[in-house]
Description:
Structural class: alpha+beta
Shape: elongated
CATH class of the largest domain: Mainly Beta
Subunit structure: Homotrimer and heterotrimer; functional P2XRs are organized as homomeric and heteromeric trimers. Homotrimer. Forms heterotrimer with P2RX1. Forms heterotrimer with P2RX6. Forms heterotrimer with P2RX3.
CATH superfamily of the largest domain: atp-gated p2x4 ion channel domain
Number of domains: 2
Main location: membrane
Keywords: ATP-binding, Cell membrane, Disulfide bond, Glycoprotein, Ion channel, Ion transport, Ligand-gated ion channel, Membrane, Nucleotide-binding, Receptor, Transmembrane, Transmembrane helix, Transport
Number of helices: 10
Subcellular location: Cell membrane; Membrane
Amino acid sequence: MAAAEPKPPAGVAAARRLARGCWSAFWDYETPKVIVVKNRRLGVVYRLVQLLILLYFVWYVFIVQKSYQDRETGPESSVITKVKGITSSEHKVWDVEEYVKPPEGGSVFSIITRIEVTPSQTLGTCPESVRVSNATCNSDEDCVAGELDMLGNGVRTGRCVPYYHGASKTCEVSGWCPVEDGASVSQFLGKMAPNFTILIKNSIHYPKFQFSKGNIENRKDSYLKHCMFDEVSHLYCPIFRLGFIVERAGENFTELAHTGGVIGVIINWDCDLDLPASNCNPKYSFRRLDPKHTPASSGYNFRFAKYYKINGSTTRTLIKAYGIRIDVIVHGQAGKFSLIPTIINLATALTSIGVGSFLCDWILLTFMNKNKVYSHKKFDKAGSGPEAWLGPA
């Protein structure tokens, strides 16, 4: 009679049952239990949540945001500008070559509308400006020879001299004399400036979609010589009156011409490339960019000088210019149908519909009167011992 096979230890048997269970779980298909709860109010909540989620994805995600498209932001852009017009001040007539800085025709340029001129400055000694801190004095002892104030106009000589006008005295400096405050003359150039015309030529390119377009109509006649920008009738005639730009930015032209300021011309190219190219059009907006209501830094001005020689000595005319700086800013985005974002957003939409089931399960198991009954129906509870979930050996 054959000897009986020895019984394996309890730990080994448990390990085998665990291995069989894991192997079975790997190959077996599991499906959640479905329970039909006949409760009208809960059913209405469930369908309403599903409807809201569906409307959100259909209307906002797919129609408004167009999330089925592949997108590219920040087009490659070039801007060329050209200003035309003449104006006059109290002393002379000004043309484009004099009042437009810099003259290259880039995306940022300034149109001078008022100047303060200090003529015939030469290298020498003269009283310092009273605007410079610690420049006023009573005697030579108040002025230190060789001292240089970075906000001043030269190196102090150590002498206290009478100011250009009035009874005050300031320290004498060695530099370009007379200083700006001592002999400047103001001239206003803005009388005819509202009628200046500005051509803004803009071309954009979206490299991802190989799409390019410009803001000038492709015509061979002299269309640009006779047109003026209008959002309805002449959208592709980018010639703007300076007064129109300032007005659309919500500013008073006379005030702006005296103090100076920065106006932004924003060109927005939002293009749906699933539609014909004729539907991709520029949209223009205008607004002031500098801090208008900050007294310490309001306005816009800059200085430059014109040099020449008189009797062999170098002389210059210093000009403090106030003007309207134009910043042309181009931005936009383009979109075109793509299968990958469409699949991702559809999967997200279908997954999100399950939020309705989660919400209704929470209401069912938390607030309903028979929540314990529903809980027993929905969940199968097993015992705590290993035999209860490992199955038979």
